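> call design_seq(struct)
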């Protein structure tokens, strides 16, 4: 049973969805005397934001007045509408370095790109106090100097679910963090996911535009709200890559970044992710009634004991060079092996694909 504190942490961890970035807006009181915006923000936000973070936020265009970016020396006036876009550190937990191997695809002085193991959680939280990507990064960053006299936490601006493999970018300093945060918030990054879903997806491509919110029945689960009366807007674009009769390989591009978005949206259109336990994909949803087929599915589930979802590509503008960089991650071996198993099973005349289906 969740305690009140646990429930609060769960809300915080999942409120931002895929992007660990938040935008705050407020209107300054009419009687406010002119004061530099960096000093004003530091005064009202206190320990929640450092002067270093404010400076880099301004440099990246993440501080606005009435929707327009301003420099840190701008003097606020009464009636100004201030907008502040900042990434969030996982600072509610004791972050201890752990010697956990990382598959680092790229690294320089500003950032690194990691190919996340599917069974690794991104950051400490409810039920996962250690063994996370953050703990591994703390070990990897152990020899880095402190940033501006502060003990720096590895900078996440987005995440992927436990059980999902693929590419994640991590900022190594406040400058990079501010620039990456803006790109993820503005949805200018280029990301594609590959998923294996149940059923033969009818359309070759399409868009799912349905709100997503937390389930009222199960706090760890999310659900669609097609009437738009609850939840937050969520848009997923999908394209069929390969049809394998009872399952389909699809490519998904997120226009928004809600928690479990692909998993919820694909289930909503009748195609849950293969072996997605939380959303009902861990049982036979399409296929024959014969034991040979059930054994085949059990073997696939054993080979890939998680939802069949992989963050395959990641592109963004490098915060220092200002040039676009692009990374690709091949499907993990067990994911690729399951697809190959489906291809062989489908073409095998003794597989039972021509038998009566459910």
């Amino acid at each position: 049973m969740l305690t009140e504190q646990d429930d609060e942490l769960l809300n915080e961890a999942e409120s931002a969805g895929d992007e660990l970035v938040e935008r705050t807006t407020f209107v300054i009181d009419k009687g406010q005397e002119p004061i530099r915006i960096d000093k004003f923000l530091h005064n009202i936000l206190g320990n929640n934001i450092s002067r270093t973070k404010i400076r880099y936020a301004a440099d990246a265009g993440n501080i606005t007045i009435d929707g327009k970016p301003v420099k840190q020396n701008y003097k606020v006036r009464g009636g100004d509408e201030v907008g502040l876009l900042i990434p969030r550190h996982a600072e509610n937990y004791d972050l201890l370095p752990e010697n956990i191997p990382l598959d680092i695809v790229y690294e320089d002085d500003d950032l690194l790109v990691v190919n996340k193991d599917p069974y690794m959680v991104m950051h400490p939280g409810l039920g996962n106090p250690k063994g996370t990507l953050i703990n591994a990064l703390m070990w990897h960053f152990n020899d880095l100097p402190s940033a501006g006299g502060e003990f720096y936490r590895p900078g996440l601006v987005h995440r992927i679910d436990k059980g999902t493999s693929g590419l994640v970018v991590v900022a190594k300093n406040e400058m990079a963090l501010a620039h990456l945060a803006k790109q993820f918030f503005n949805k200018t990054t280029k990301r594609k996911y590959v998923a294996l879903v149940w059923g033969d997806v009818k359309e070759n491509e399409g868009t799912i535009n349905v709100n997503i919110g937390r389930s009222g029945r199960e706090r760890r689960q999310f659900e669609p709200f097609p009437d738009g009366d609850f939840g937050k807007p969520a848009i997923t674009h999908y394209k069929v890559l390969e049809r394998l009769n009872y399952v389909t390989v699809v490519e998904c591009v997120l226009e928004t970044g809600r928690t479990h978005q692909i998993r919820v949206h694909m289930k909503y259109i009748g195609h849950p992710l293969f072996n997605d336990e939380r959303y009902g994909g861990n049982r036979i949803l399409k296929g024959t009634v014969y034991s040979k087929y059930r054994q085949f599915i059990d073997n696939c589930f054993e080979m890939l004991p998680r939802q069949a979802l992989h963050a395959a590509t990641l592109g963004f503008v490098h915060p220092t060079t200002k040039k676009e960089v692009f990374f690709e991650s091949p499907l993990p071996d067990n994911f690729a092996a399951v697809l190959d198993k489906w291809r062989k099973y489908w073409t095998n005349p003794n597989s039972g694909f021509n038998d009566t289906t459910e």
